[in-house]
Amino acid sequence: MEEEKEWWVYIVVCSDGSMYTGITTGLERRIAEHNDSKKGGKYTRNRRPVNLVYSEILPDRSAASKREYYIKKLSRIGKLKLIDL
Question: pLDDT tens, 23-66?
Fold first, then answer.
């Protein structure tokens, strides 16, 4: 049976001040991809560098996707409040 992976939901602030929310199984790798490779999200590619401002670990992809959806629906003010927790 395949080993269970930890999933992360994260928020980065882009160089233009906008925020990007995503999920991954490798947080450090994913932030490096956003900043240094073509594998970074299309949205962040022209807004480098990005700075990680929030992350939380979840037990599986389903939970991470649900949390990502919730965060993406928040207003900018809501996201800023979440980051300050």
Answer: 999 999 999 999 999 888 899 999 999 999 999 999 999 999 99
pLDDT of residue 1 exceeding 80, the answer is: no
Quick check: is 39 in a domain? Answer: yes
Domain assignment present for 34: yes
Q: 12, 50 in Cβ contact below 8 A?
A: yes
Burial class (CB in 10 A: 0-12, 13-18, 19+), 37: exposed
Alpha carbon distances (Å) from 60 to 6, 21, 50:
6, 17, 25
Q: Domain span at residue 26?
A: 7-83
